[in-house]
Amino acid sequence: MSGESSNGAIDALDVKLMEAFPGRVVRKDLVQKLKVGFSIPVYVLEYLLGKYCSTTDDDEIARGLELVKEAIAERVVRADQGELIKSRLKRSGAMKLIDVVTVTFDEKDQGGKYWARLGTAGLDRVHIDEALVDKYERMLTGGIWANVESTL
After folding, report:
1. Given CA atoms 109, 110, 114, 118 in this order, what sign does their dihedral have?
2. Which of 10, 70, 86, 128 has the smallest set of CB atoms within 10 Å of its CB?
3. Average pLDDT rounded to a whole number, residues 139-146
4. Residue pair 11/3 in contact by the 8 Å Cβ criterion
């Protein structure tokens, strides 16, 4: 936020921004506080902070920071956890993950079908709805970080 002083205090402009753009204002001091130790792009961290910490209330920010940490711990897949994720998915039937999603189109499969790959989780040939691919075509051009629910 531009109106933030060097000590992290929130001014009147910050309050107006948060009221005008709820869930979209990100305090950069919180990004700096959390980005050490997490191997996710800064914009993914900013998305989570905007979702849980876009407020002027210190107690809500503290609760939001805990929610962000929990979301990262529970949903972001580390490279060494691929097999663990597959096992948990088999056991539970569904999981929410934050991962890089890349989509390919197989024109030979049932007249044409889209398949997603969750890069870090190591899940290949995950069926993805055509409407999602149409809405987020960037998945076809190298992949995007996404908050996804994968089911068996």
Report:
1. negative
2. 70
3. 92
4. yes
